[in-house]
Amino acid sequence: MMKFVFTAGVAAFAMIATPVVAQSNTAAPATAAASVTAGATVYDTEGGVVGTIDSVNGDVAVVATGQNKVGVPVASFGPGDKGPRLAMTRAQLDQAAAGAKAERKAAVTQGANVVDSAGEQVGTVSSVDAQYAVVDMADAQVKLPLNAFSVKDNGLMVGMTKAQLEAATNAAAPAAAPATNTAEPAPAP
Fold first, then answer.
1. pLDDT of 13-54, one tens digit each?
2. CATH number of 2-13+110-172: 3.30.300.70, 2.30.30.240, 1.20.58.340, 1.25.40.10?
3. 147 vs 131: CA distance, rounded Å
4. R_g of the chain, CA atoms, integer Å
5. How much is the pLDDT for 173?
6. What is the pTM of this model?
7. What whole-number distance in Å separates Cα of residue 18 and Cα of residue 147?
8. In whole angstroms, what is the distance from residue 69 CA to residue 93 CA?
9. DSSP calls for 4-25
10. Which residues face 70 on adjacent strands?
């Protein structure tokens, strides 16, 4: 039975599935990490607006540029006079996102290996269309939007653990019909 999984949780992870490493500096100072909050405006090193932080999930902030929503590691932000800062302009971040999307489109193919965010085997892609890929898991087939995947060395990765994906799959499964008694009643004595 195919289970269609596109719950709010999967959608949230899907938005961060276009990861882009924005700069190569080491961990950001605590003051920069503290300013990486939803709604904050992000600036480049010259003071130009890159976008707005749409959400923060763990160590990844989703930056909305107006053209893309891009997952950026919180450690990639530095402190700025006006707010959090990246070592990329809006155009550079959009260009990196376009490259990541093209790489993902080429990698989401039938037979591709799928792992979770911890590197654990989830399953393989059994079919792909313009918007979705079906992943064969041990106990179910799950239909996920293409932007739920990112490309990793060992195949495709979904932005959640296998346990989280299984929980979302089980939550999306239709409820089983109540059991009916099919036994014939005993004849009256």
1. 443 444 554 443 444 444 556 689 999 999 999 999 999 999
2. 2.30.30.240
3. 8
4. 21
5. 63
6. 0.62
7. 7
8. 10
9. E---HHHHHHHHT-SB------
10. 63
